[in-house]
Structures are given as structure tokens and as C-alpha cells.
Amino acid sequence: MENLLSKEEMEAIINGDHGNAFAVLGIHRNKGSKEVFIRAYHPNTKSIEVIKKSDNSSLGFMEKLDERGFYQKNFGAGEDFAYKFRIENDLGNIYEAEDPYRFMPTLGDIDIYLLGEGNHLNMYKILGAHLREMDGVKGVSFAVWAPNAKRVSVVGAFNNWDGRVNPMRKHISCGVWDIFIPNITEGEMYKYEVKTDNNYILTKSDPVGFYSEKRPKTASIVYNIDRYVWSDENWMNYREEHNSFDKPMSIYEVHLGSWRRKDNNEYLTYRELADTLVPYVTNMGFTHVEFLPLAEHPLDASWGYQVVGMFAPTSRFGTPDDLRYLIDKFHQAGIAVIMDWVPAHFPKDGHGLVEFDGTHLYEHADPRKGEHKDWGTKIYNYGRTEVCNFLCASALYWLKEFHIDGLRVDAVASMLYLDYSRKDGEWIPNQYGGNENLEAISFIRKMNELVYGQCKGAFTCAEESTAWPMVSRPTSMGGLGFGYKWNMGWMNDTLRYISHEPIHRKYHHGMLTFGLLYAFNENFILPISHDEVVHGKGSMLSKMPGDEWQKFANLRAYYGFMYTHPGKKLMFMGCEFGQDWEWNSEEGLRWFLLDYPMYKGMQNCVRDLNLMYKGNPALYQIDFDYRGFEWIEHSNANDSVITYMRKGEKPGDYLIVACNFTPVVRHDYRIGVYESGRYQEIFNSDDKNYWGSGIKNEGFMMSEEIGWNDKPRSIRLTLPPLSTIVIKLIRD
């Protein structure tokens, strides 16, 4: 029989050096003689018999050209045909196997074009591992982007993790490698073995894998992402209205690993959380829940912010469908779900994206652009179209496949500035000499346009701590396109203010009021997040001055100020009952504190704040426009008192808020009002049910025809110590 293969090519296959194994292995026809021949490489085997699939007849044994397991058989002139192998291995075991090299590519021409262009928005439906049936055979298709690799193989138990056995087919125009492995199914663990141009062997998890082994193991797992049957149709049809700017947004921020733990300190699963977290959030009156990142990450201590699997929910708490179940239950309870999403950087773990194909594929090669030294992480190369496509597809994946309602984008400031946390000489200016990262800005705008264009009712939030303009303005106006921005300035100023002893607060009064100078520049969320209760910052309660009673009173008053201030609300878990200890991600919250009246009172206060907030459109309808707010008195620094109005869309729909940030009871405190009539206290943070002193404004306060605060009329109040009270005009 004529050997149509050079010895060099055969050696390249055996050594795992051949960059185009599909040109050698499988069934082929000699162009000159029209002869059909089959080649195969199966190490650790004694023989391979070819079986014709149409009638299951034997077509004879293949010739073993090399003892290391390279076979060939010539069938003479004829047509291609479907076949399989009957293999005897070195142990004498005989089994039948399909030949992966007889199957056609799993990428179509349009896929190849869009991947090469960097515009394949559903690339996760092509790349990664997918259950398929090809030519009547069930199996799994694998595809991965690694344009600069010499060879890429998929490895798993199905080939003894031997990278020489299943080298993949490379599509030169887009740099994607693919292969169909027959007769493997869901649950199969796999990785990609990458041989670099310098002949180094790398073993990588799937960048577009949908499920992973539980850390510290790192293999990807074949998972069917199309199986789950959702029960949230009503929610998905309605969520555009629920998530609009003129609706209440009170967010409960949660780290799933430490909200609660089992008695043995193990994690609750996604499904166990569906039975416990969903009713808790509902009962507390929150409208939204926000998860710290749930994409797969190797290090617990990163809280999920150093991601290796941008398409894989972490296996710490269960399967991807278990997470879908949790989200489904939140939606059925009328709660929107936000997830922290991290496109700013990724860790250096060897099984991840770093130097994926032996080159700086996902990251910049120059550390002045490609590395965060503070965090020990790599920075995505946003100027590379395929990387931009990878990240945009990830954003859409979570919104479409997991019904996530909103993405809170982490560390946006680090993306926007080339000199972020860098000294002179440690960064490279852009083409105009500035410090703006033009490529990152372009990516952010594209991502936001896609989210709002393709996912009805979904939204994005930016964690952005600088004065970058128009973060939450449409790209058509020159903005970045986010729906919301975290108001870090308000948070920092007001926490500094409330941390001062009351006797000193009059000297820092501007910290309380300054936020209203820019409150309507962006669509702000007021964040009391996890970042305020870690790294030695103490708990929210520990920031408060005074004795135990004053600490709780201060915090209740502060929360009352927050809930009545323009902007949507966010509160980290544990803050709602005044957890006394800094958050520790390695243990559950200190729920036993609720056995004590002061903590239970704090929880009651936050629940009632949520109920009042949701029940009064004046507190949320006009959050991002000056029409929704009016000062009554902002300059009474000596008494540390501020009073203001929050207004709704309907004429005459307003609430009056008075905050007293000293422990002094102020009787007959007069404030100006517009309308005559009866006014009633509807919230008081000093209520006895909240562990307050119980000083309140009983019954009705009648307006008097005495002008005050530039208003034609006024009412007299009693301001409880360290309190926020809310007053409403009672209309008959």
C-alpha cells in the first residue's frame, strides 16, 4: 500500500506538533488517484479494525505504521463513507469508538466571519463545550480561541488527558480551534492543552466554559445550558416597568458564601438560599438583591472579584441550573436580581486567561497597560476586537441565559484611566497625550449599548469613584451609557460626618449637605456596600460615636437620611440589623444578635424604612432631577439639623424630612411649609419599636400662618435625639 504521508508529518502527529491534524487524520481522498484512505493515531493500542456504519460490516484492520499508535488503511478508489473503529488496547480490552476526525467543523461560515470580526454576540453558543448530534452521533463539540498556538487539543478522561490524541482543527481566519468528540456527554470534565509557538505545554480551563470543578480543582465540565424551564414569564414581561427610573430601588447586597452558613460552617447551596434568602429579602421589603460576583473564581478571599470563568457560575454553591432556580424564585417573589460583573481585570492563575496561547492574548503585553500591581492581576486588552467581543458576550450571557436584571460593573475607574494607581513613568499616554483609556471607553459604550438594545428591562450600574462626566448618560449624548452610578462621594462625606462626635458635627455640616450640589449630575445609587465594612473599617455600628444607645440611634438616623435622600438605595447584608463586627467572608453573619432588642430594633427600623420608601412615590419618582427635592433649611449647623422636602410627580405629593444629628431633644422646632392643614408623622427613627427613646409627634401638627424658611406658613415639631422623622400633609 502506498503511504501518502511523509515521515515528518507522521512524527508531528505522534509528538503533538502538527498544527493541522484534520489534514492528516480521518478519511481522505487522494486527489490524483481518487483513492480513499483513513488514518488514525491511538497510542497504547494493539490494533484498529474499520467498521462500515451502514451495515456494521468489517472493512479490515488498519496497518500500524508506527508502534506508538499511528495507523493507516487504503480502500482504493471510491466514495467517502461513514465508519467507526473497533479498537484493542494494550490491556487486551476491545471496544468500539467513533473517529472524531471524520466529522465536519462545528463552526459555520457566518460564525467564522463574525468571530474574526469580533462581532459574534452569541459567541458562547459556538465557543465552549456543547452537546450536539452530528451525522446521527451524539457527542460534544469543543471550540476555543487560541490564534497563536502551534496546536490545541481537548483533553479529558475520554482520552486519558493525553494532548496527542485529540488535536483540534484550526480556522485560520478567526483563530478558533474546534473538534467534535463523539459519545461523551454532560458531566464530562475537560481542559484544553495548548502547545505554544515556543513548544511549551499549557493546560487551560475553557474561557467560555459553563461549569467548573469546585476549587481548588480547575477542570471545566460539559453542561447543558438549554435545559432549565423558567417560571418567571410574568416578571420578565413586567421588569422593564419595575426597573424604570421612577420606581423604587432598595438593594440588598449579598455575599452568598457568608450570608448564612450551616452549623458545620459549610456554604448554603443555591437551592437552600432560595428557601431562606428569598423570603428574608421579601420580608425586609427590599426591591432588589445584588450578588457579589458569582462567576467562577479560584480564591475565596477575592470575594469573586478575580474571575477565571466569565461564563461559569461558581460551583461552590451548586450547578448553573441551581443558580437559575434561585434567580427564578426571586423573580417569582417580585425581587430584581443584580450581579457584580468584573471586566476590569483577571487573575494570573495558570489555568485561566493569562498568556492563554503562549502570547498575551487577553491582556496587554506591556505591564504599563496590562497589569494592576495593587491587585496582582492582568488588564484586558480592550482594543482587541475578539477580547471586546468576549466581554460583551459575557455580559449578554448573564442577562439572557440567567435572567439577571442588572449588571453592576466593578472598578470602572481603573478601566477609564491609564494612570490609575500608577506613578509617573508607569503608564503610557493615549494617542492624544491624555490619561484616558480610549479603548476601554469604547468597550464600555459598546457593552452598554448592547445591554440596553438587546435585553429589555435590564440595566447596568457603574462603580466609579471619580468625577468622570456623564457616566450614567446615554452614549448618544457622549456619555458612557450606564443606567446608574454609585455615589461614592456622598457615601464618603456622610460617613465621615456621622463618625464625628455630635458636639463637633456643626463644624462639618457641609459634609452633610454638599452632596446636593451634584446629586442630579448622574443617576445615583447611594451605596452602603461591603467595601465600607472590611479591611479594618469596622462595622457600620462601630463607626458611630457615643455609648451603645447613641450608636444605634446615630445609625438609625443615618439610614433615615439615606432613605429620604435623592438616589436609589443599597445596603450590604448585616448592616440592616447593625452587625457589631466587621464583615468576615469566612463565616456567616452574626444572626444571634437579633436575640437582643437593640439589633432587632435596627432590623425593624430598616424594614419600616423600606415599606415607607416603597409606599410613597415622593421618595423615588424624581430621584435624578432637582424637581424632586427642595431644601427647607440646610444651614442650621449650630443645631446639626437639616430639613427638606421630597416631591413626587403629582402636584401636592410631597414629604417633609427633619434630621437631628445631636442627642438633644428639640421642642417647638419650627419649619416652613407651603400649605395649611394637618401634618402627621409617618416615620420616626426614635420609635420604641426600634429601641429608641419613644419621643414622637403625637396626633396632628396644625399649620400656623407664620412665615418661616421663606415659606408662607409653618408647623412646630419635636425633634427626637439623634433622629430622622418624616412628616406628611393629611389631605381629607
Itemize the secondary structure elements and their pairings.
Elements: H1 7-14, E1 26-29, E2 35-41, E3 45-52, E4 57-61, E5 63-66, E6 70-77, E7 83-89, E8 94-97, H2 109-117, E9 128-134, E10 137-145, E11 151-156, E12 169-171, E13 176-182, E14 189-195, E15 201-204, E16 220-221, H3 233-242, E17 250-254, H4 270-284, E18 288-291, E19 295-296, E20 309-313, H5 320-332, E21 336-341, E22 346-347, H6 367-370, E23 371-372, E24 377-378, H7 385-401, E25 406-409, H8 412-416, H9 438-454, E26 459-462, E27 484-486, H10 488-499, H11 509-513, E28 524-528, H12 540-543, H13 548-564, E29 568-572, H14 597-615, E30 629-633, E31 641-647, E32 654-660, E33 666-673, E34 678-684, E35 700-702, E36 713-719, E37 723-730
Parallel strand pairs: 17-18, 17-29, 18-21, 21-25, 25-26, 26-27, 27-28, 28-29
Antiparallel strand pairs: 1-2, 2-6, 3-4, 3-7, 5-6, 7-8, 9-10, 10-13, 11-14, 12-13, 14-15, 14-16, 19-20, 22-24, 23-24, 30-31, 31-32, 32-37, 33-36, 34-35, 34-37
Helix pairs in contact: 4-5, 7-9, 13-14
